[in-house]
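Box 3.1 A note on notation
Throughout this textbook, protein chains are presented in two layers. The first layer is the amino acid sequence; the second is a token string describing backbone geometry. Keep the layers aligned when reading.
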Amino acid sequence: MKKVLFVMVALLMMTATFAQSEKYIKAMEALVPAVDTTRSIDGMATLANSFERIANAEKTQWLAYYYAALCNINMANTYYVMQQSDKIDPLMDKAEPFLNKAEELEKNNSEVFLLKKMFNSGKMMADPMNRFMVYGAAASEALAKAKTLNPENPRVYLQEGIDKFYTPEQFGGSKEEGKKLFQQAEKKFESFKPASSIHPNWGLGTVKYFLTQE
């Protein structure tokens, strides 16, 4: 009798876990595509909050933390483009614990290290003159690690291209070299397959945008 009860309880637990997992995946599937298409500050803030709520409910799922961090970093980058650098640090402060949690849950993942690169680049751009030595080095190290972990990750070449494209020639930058990296990224996207419907697959639109720039 005890054995039967144990089996029934185990089955109920498996069913509950499956239902919870299915609910999590559906919630994520409704949001993940918008990460690659949302450009407004308000839209990104809404997405970040939605991923944060999922992360708080599903504390063992690294992707929810990853996307919450990514949305905040994307907002910070948008403010940089808008020349509102004073708004970068508060968003990075919000992104950092999500990024740390994603790395804690998912060790040695190319996507997480790529996000670390983006985080450190963003922190540097808030005050380039005073932060380059610390955050610039950390960004380069994280990007190199992301590439080592997965040389087929197209977002690695996208980020390399952005760095080359915007760095002045006297400091080793080159728009021509940047475009070559964007072409590599585009090629990598042709064969790239995300691990699931909710794993990172963003960036192709950004690659195509940069390929049209002079």
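The chain has nine helices and no strands. Residues 1-19 have pLDDT under 50 and may be disordered.
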